[in-house]
């Protein structure tokens, strides 16, 4: 009886075994594409017969179980792999403030506008009685209104440290003249960062409080368009090593321009040159300075150029601003201003140039004229009791010589080039004495001749008297 039961169990297992074998053969004959699709949809078959009897071997894995893993990924849709995006480049301090200047939250943006544009902005801001205000007072009102609306404002200017320890940020748009929209810098900020006159300061400003008259610098963001911490790494200008001018300025621009081409041949100018243009009145020295400014700014756009006009006529200042490039900074003090103003603006310009040279930049100053600057210092300096020929005080030449003597080529990068005009044949004994004082201090002299002007010959360059010291360092061999 037990034997019969065992045979019945085998008879029951045989159809299951046949069905599993038939299913496996059917799967082997199916197409691969269908197999892959079925493997992704139906689960793998379980060995049912093996669990019921130990005499039946386990079924071999189906064809779909032997397919490699990537085959299944072929049927599945996935997004294409995109290259990893690079992290955005960190914005430098200089780029940040150039971007801010283009907006409406920067003081410099308002200072560059004319009165008509400021009236339009004042009307949009809801400021009343703005027609009777001066430009500086109008900017002051607009700044206060914008700070009230936006909560912050950015300012920039050249620092002037006063004897009392505090300072103000002056604007080159006003030739560093004191104005209501100047920014106050506290003595603690000056001591903390080691600021000096001539540093270009950028930062956030706040409106004046009840008992205050000026905007105040809230936070120093940049010094000379760099991080404030880098100021401690710079060497002071007086400790830099001066060298002879070795790198030459190529002044030739077009074939029609003869003045700069003659200077290239007769009196070459290098970076760090201390040049003196000796000229009688009405010989074309101002026109020559304009051509020099355009030539250097065209051929060397990376050079920072400042034009300083002392005791000039107002129409000459306007003409100079319109005939030179926009990136040339024109600073002026006209003849109707006090002599103290002449001295103050010259000190601001030379200190700013020194700070830029400390940062390794090449700076060019065109001064017209050093004779009038010396006259201003002769009036303002305390009299020592020692009077030279022509009524010149013995101490009056100290500051003009310090200005002119700052021109030099720096050993580890950077240079300060000064091209100054000196007046002769004016009928004044003082002018002759001033010229004699500066005659031996320069390393390049360019003489203009009145006799050539009378013959209508331009440029009126006296080739026999003009020349450059150590010109072999500049000219090609």
Q: In brief, what are we looking at here?
A:
The chain has 477 residues and is of the alpha/beta class.
Question: How would you explain this protein's 3D organization?
Answer:
The model is unreliable at 1-23, 25-59, 61-68 and 71-78 (pLDDT under 50). This protein has two domains: 93-227, Nucleic acid-binding proteins (OB fold (Dihydrolipoamide Acetyltransferase, E2P)), CATH 2.40.50; 242-473, Rossmann fold, CATH 3.40.50. Strands 6, 9, 10, 11, 12, 13, 14, 15 and 16 form a nine-stranded mixed beta sheet that branches. A five-stranded mixed β-barrel has the order 1-2-3-5-4. Strands 7-8 form a two-stranded antiparallel sheet. Helix 13 (339-358) packs across helix 14 (370-380). The protein contains 17 helices and 16 strands. It is of the alpha/beta class and 477 residues long. The N and C termini lie far apart (126 Å). A hairpin with an 8-residue loop joins strand 4 and strand 5.
